# Entry
Amino acid sequence: MTTIKIRGGQRLVGSVQVSGAKNAVLPIIAASLLAEKGITIIEGAPYLTDIENLAHVVRSLGVKVEMSPAGRVQIIAENLATTEAPYELVRKMRASFWVAGPLLARTGHFRVPLPGGCNIGERPVDQHIKGFEALGAEVSIEHGYVEGHVNGRLKGTTVYLDIVSVGATINTMMAATLAEGQTIIENAAKEPEIVDLANYLNAMGASVRGAGTDVIRIEGVESLHGATHTVIPDRIEAGTFMVAAAITGGNVFVEGAIYNHLSSLCAKLREAGVDVEDDISGIRVRADKPLKPIDVKTLPYPGFPTDLQAPVLALMSRVNGVSIITETLYENRFMHVSELRRMGAEVKIEGRSAIVEGVPKLTGASVTATDLRAGAALVLAGLVAEGETIVNGIEHIDRGYNDLVGKLRTLGAHIFRTDDYVPPLKLVSSQS
Ligand code: EPZ
# Structure
């Protein structure tokens, strides 16, 4: 089984290029189903298993998808063969549920497996269903499938999302693009990936206004066509490298990182004593003095992102003093804590908070990733631990990080994957 091996102790120094945002590419692939004619071209898409999996799901619906190594995804969705997504593909990646909104809007029907929970929480889709029903669809859950249908077109409406949900905002926004009349989504999620999706939808001929605020207005149109779109940089990957620089006391330029996508992380890193410099083409992070403990509470954007909670908890485990990390979005997103404890971290879980008592050193150990961000946190801890750390379960990491190992190695980390490890050549001495 492939693992990641790290020998800790190297300061990270240099520059790293951020890839395109996984959580922008996924909704855009789903939204491409709305195009009854023309080609969609997504530029800047990283190669990730989550993206590969969603490509398989839309291919199963009759959509042509080609992915090039250069990060270009070409999609033709003119002929849909079915409006039912297969269980064995959807179960691999819950964002597959985002094909429901486009299918409902374009064909009046969808039948998609109810996404199961995952390691970090139950993750229901009740707000997605609320959006579809508000638009006039009849939705039922039977035999593990969510099925929705509407006679004729969906009807524009005003819908208030009870929970600020990225997925429910995305699914409702996509469905509303072809509805009759205006739809107003209130209490909408404001993530940059939602803005990116809205820009793509408008390039397809939709009329979406207000994305990035908590009120999104969509004027329904008759039909949509394919469009070309370059995705935004991945703010979570960028944030992960920023924390990697901080935990190793390094000096790293994260090229392509957009400051206002990461303002909460930048504020918290500065509070901890990290130098964070916003440059027009990226963000520079320097940590050349002892850091201070900080308290962090995850919240919907622009609050502190839950997807950077595990990396920051790893950072705080090495900072002298007590930090309190509170996870408000997911009920079970501290599974990395037990693995960090195996490396010597002192962390107590009390309800939705982790009380982190920084320790003078972590020691390398064999640990296991439980979700992609927990996996990244274990890698970061390995960068600073004494000795060798072996991270198992790296299929989680491959879901959301494009060449994390290669990028960290260019910054000076002693890290490799065992599936591409080339042992150092044994120098044959001339005497032998
Ligand atoms: C997206 O998931 C991201 N995934 C997640 O990133 C991210 O953690 C999450 O947003 C929050 O920012 C993708 O973009 C592919 P939500 P999503 O709906 O849309 C509850 C990663 O690491 N909820 O905003 O599924 C839900 O249980 C992944 O890349 C309902 O109760 O998240 C959660 O507690 C992990 N009912 C909260 O809302 C619903 O109908 C936020 O979920 C929908 C959600």
